[in-house]
Amino acid sequence: MIELTSRIDGETFKLFYLEEKLKPLGYTIGGGWDYDHGSFDYKIDDEVGYQFLRVPFVAVDGALDTKGTTVRIQKPLLLSHKYQIGLDDHVHVGNLKASIDQFAEPQDPDAQFPEKYVDLGCSLVRELEEVLLK
């Protein structure tokens, strides 16, 4: 994980506004969101797992599933997730979760981020600053 310095860190926006601005640029709402925090993710590559820019945020007023919620952007991160090949090694007979969730556990959820994508991540953050801080 690499934290990136950005002028959007600490800025507040309506969540709906962020969705309108970021989704056309290729960002998706990260799968690990909760009612008080979440992230926008931009997939950079899927080389041996996947690499992405994550823009985390926290709710300032209300829950994320509430209309009109304001969120505060936190420090953008470059992340790399490396998934194991094959079946989930934590599955055992009688494991109810395994019968529902068939995805393998990450081999390394915080793998080394490839150096060749750091400049791209920095340019994506500059693009975010231009789009959001007009």
UniProtKB/TrEMBL annotation:
Q: Which organism is it from?
A: Priestia koreensis
Q: Which Pfam families match?
A: YugN
What is the designated name of this protein? YugN-like family protein
